[in-house]
Amino acid sequence: MALTLTVGQREIQRQADLAFKLRDYKIFLALIDSGLTAESPASEWLEKELDIVSSPGYFAVSGTLGAAIWNPDTQRMILPEITAVFKADGGDWTFNTICLHLVGEEYLHSINVESPSKTLLTGAVAAYAYQLQSFVE
């Protein structure tokens, strides 16, 4: 006897909303020398965030996530894309990690590593796009 499991679109929407809808986020740049992993607490990552003293003109990108939209082709809930644009105003910045933190969570959502480290010269721009998804496999 075969069993077939079906999870409805509205249930996936409910789960995506619980996980992401109206959640505040912060995308920040960090210079990590060693020791931190994806399992390290967000507080330890936040200690490594660039600051305005060592990186003049630096500010993290923050916002609030919107509602997800069902994509029938991929059978996934797609959240609005997050685009983080950083412009080195006032001085050069060196970083090697881009972090996405859902504010209030104990751990980071995701970590992107630049290898080798990236230096943004004054006036230069770096942009990063995030597409959060919810789906059933």
Kindly describe this structure.
The chain is mainly beta. Helix content is 12%, strand content 39%. The chain has one domain. The protein contains two helices and nine strands, in the order αβαββββββββ. It has a four-stranded antiparallel beta sheet. Strands 3-4-9 form a three-stranded antiparallel beta sheet, with helices on one face. Strands 5-8 form a two-stranded antiparallel sheet. The longest helix has 11 residues, at 9-19. The protein is elongated, with a radius of gyration of 18 Å. The two termini are 21 Å apart. The model has no long low-confidence stretch (mean pLDDT 87).
Please tell me the total number of domains.
Answer: 1
Number of helices: 2
* Gyration radius, rounded: 18 Å
Instruction: For the largest sheet, list the strands in their spatial order.
Output: 2-1-6-7
Largest sheet: 4 strands, antiparallel
**Quaternary state, please?**
single chain
Order of helices and strands: HEHEEEEEEEE
Uncertain stretches: none
Give the CA-based shape.
elongated
Terminal CA distance = 21 Å
Helical residues, percent: 10-25%
| Number of E strands | 9
SSE-based structural type: mainly beta
Which secondary structure elements does this structure contain, and how are they paired or packed?
Elements: H1 9-19, E1 24-30, H2 42-46, E2 61-64, E3 69-71, E4 76-78, E5 82-87, E6 93-102, E7 110-120, E8 125-130, E9 133-135
Antiparallel strand pairs: 1-2, 1-6, 3-4, 4-9, 5-8, 6-7
